[in-house]
Amino acid sequence: MSTTDPSLSVAVVGAGWAGLAAAVTAAAGGARVTVFEAAREAGGRARALDVPGPTGPLRLDNGQHILIGAYTEALTLMAQVGLDPRRELLALPLGLPHVDGTGLQTPGWASRWPAPAALLAAVLAGTRGWTWADRAGLLRVSLRWLRQGFACAPHQSVADVSAGLPARAMDELVAPLCVSALNVPPEQASGAVFLRVLRDALLGPGHGGWAASQLLLPRTDLGALWPDAALRWLGDAAPVPAEVHRGARVLTVERQAEGWTLTVADPDGTRPARFDRVVWATGPTVAAAALAEVNPGWATTCGHLQHTAITTVYLHAAGQRLPSPMLALRSAPAQFVFDRGWLRPDDAQAQGVLAFVISASQGERDALQQAVLVQARDELGLQPRTLTPLQTVTEKRATFACTPGVQRPPMTVAPGLWAAGDYTEGPYPATLEAAVRSGVAAAQAALGR
Ligand SMILES: Cc1cc2nc3c(=O)[nH]c(=O)nc-3n(C[C@H](O)[C@H](O)[C@H](O)COP(=O)(O)OP(=O)(O)OC[C@H]3O[C@@H](n4cnc5c(N)ncnc54)[C@H](O)[C@@H]3O)c2cc1C
Questions:
Q1: Distance (Å, whole) CA 409 – CA 415
Q2: Which atom in ligand 1 lies closest to the alpha carbon of residue 264?
C-alpha cells in the first residue's frame, strides 16, 4: 500500500503528546487518521487546567513543564503545525540560581555560546559561593564522563557515575538536574540515561539557533503549546483531514485477518471500528492491560514498570515577583519554583502565580501544600499573609521510574500495531521529547517507512 494512499486507515489511541505526534506524522504522510481520546481534553499528562483565581478563572497546567533546546523533534513538530517555538517559549541560559544569587548561572556574556563552552564559563565564573576545589572537582568528573563518551554500565546509578564529585556540585547541580529529568533521586536513577541526556544537552544540536542546553519555559498554557495547534492542523491542514473523537475510550483491540478492530465506548454507547493499522498511545498501565492478549510478553514488560509522582503546588503571592522566572530551592519539599508572571508579563492574571515543583514526590497533598507554604516563607522570604494556595496537583503516575537497567517495552507490539509513549524503549527518560519521538517513530512504522 502506498504511504500516500488515503485508503490506509490508522487509528491513534490516546491524544497525549505521543498520540498527537503520531497522528500529525501519519496524516502528513497521507494516511486517513482517526484519533480516540478518553478524556474531554487532549494533552494527557501535559495539559491545561482551569482553576478559580483570586480575580477570576485562571488557566494553569496539570504540572509546570520545562523543555530544553535539545528537544529537537518536539520543537520541529510544533513548527510543523504552525506554532513559532520562539514565541511560545522563553529561553534561558543553563542555570540553577538560588534566591540569594548563588548557584550555577551562565554569565550573560557567555549565554549565546555553544553548550560546552557556556557550561565551562558557568562553572568558572557563574558559581558564586563555590570554592576552587568544588569547580575543579566538577570539571574533573565532567572530563571523565566526556572521555567515557557519556556512557556507563546499565546497572550504575547517577550516584555511582558521580563518584568523586564535590558535595556542592552534587547538591547544586547533578542532584537537581537528575530529579527534574528522571524524576528519581540520584541513588535510584539510571546513570546511563542521565549521561545520555547530559550528552545531548551539552554536545547535541539545539533547535532553531538555540543551544541544546538552553532551558525553555512555556509562555502559554500546555494546551496552547501543542495539543490545540496539533488538533487544529489535523482538522484543517492535514492532506486528509483527521477524525478526532474526544470522550471516546478504546476498550479492546482485536486482530482481524486484515487489520484490527477496536471497541470504542463513548457517551452514545459502545461500537466496533476497523482500521488497517493502530498506534496505541496511552500510558503504560492502560497499554499493559489492553494489549495483554495481543502480546502477553510485551504487556508483562510494560506492566512491570514502576511509577513516580510529581506534585505541583500553585500559590498566589500578591504583589510579589521572584528575581528570575525559575529558581532552584535548597530546602524541601519543592526543588524548583517558577514565577508565571515573568512568563506572561502582559497577563495581569498571571502576576504573582508561583508554581512549586516537587519531583519524585511522596506524601499527601495537603501536607505537601503546607510544607511549600513554609518553604516560600523561610527560603524565599515571602510574607505568609500575601500567599494564597490556588491549586495543588499530584500526578501519581507522572513518569515511569527511570532506574538502572529498567526494561522498557519496544515500540512494535504486533504486525500492524505499535505502541507510542514516553515509556517505550528509547534513549530518554519520560519527557515530552521521548513521547514525541516515540509517536513520530510509531507513525512512520505505520506508514511503512
Ligand atoms: C506533573 C508533571 C510534570 C512534568 N514535567 C515535565 C517536564 O518538565 N519536562 C518534560 O519533558 N516532561 C515532563 N513531564 C513528563 C511529560 O508530561 C510526559 O512524558 C508526557 O506528557 C507523556 O506523554 P504521552 O503521550 O506518552 O502519555 P500521556 O500524556 O499519558 O497520554 C496518554 C493519553 O491516552 C489517553 N487514554 C488513556 N486510556 C485511553 C483509552 N483507553 N482510550 C483512549 N484514550 C486513552 C489519556 O487520557 C491521555 O490523554 C511531566 C509530567 C508530569 C505529570
A1: 15
A2: 42
